[in-house]
Amino acid sequence: MSEEPLELPIDGTLDLHTFRPQEVADLVAEYLQVCLERKILTVRIVHGKGIGTLRETVHAQLKKSPLVADFHLAGESAGGWGATMVYLKPLN
User: Fold this and answer.
1) What is the CA 61 to chain-centroid distance, rounded?
2) d(CA 62, CA 86)
3) Cβ-based neighbour number of residue 87 at 10 Å
4) How far is CA 70 from CA 2, 7, 41, 51, 66, in A?
5) Domain range annotation of the chain
6) 84 beta partners
7) What is the pLDDT of residue 8?
């Protein structure tokens, strides 16, 4: 049985709470690519606070992505250490 693809809103915020950990790396890469294509250069990824496993997975993906200029944990108003702010390199 095949699952229907889930349509995500591409609005600069990716909430990972509904995804399985094994889906996260590819999902983050694909979401950032689509954001860049839509000229969304600041992205907030909500990974939750928990024990940090999901955050570590997200940060590992961001470190190796050629699309990412910089990233850091979000400020308190944007989710604190339960979210990461990502800044993408603009397309030339």
Assistant:
1) 9
2) 8
3) 14
4) 36, 27, 11, 23, 10
5) 13-88
6) 45, 73
7) 73
Q: Give alpha helix (H) positions in the chain.
A: 24-37, 53-64
Whether domain 13-88 has CATH 3.30.1370.110: the reply is: yes
> How far apart are the C-alpha atoms of 8 and 68, rounded to whole Å?
20
- Tokens (6 digits) for 25: 């790396």
Structure confidence at residue 50 (pLDDT): 87
Ranges of residues in the chain with a pLDDT under 50 are: 1-2
pLDDT of residue 79: 81
Note the pTM of the prediction, 2 decimals.
Answer: 0.89
Task: Give the pLDDT score at 62.
Answer: 98
Tell me the C-alpha distance between 72 and 44, whole Å: 10
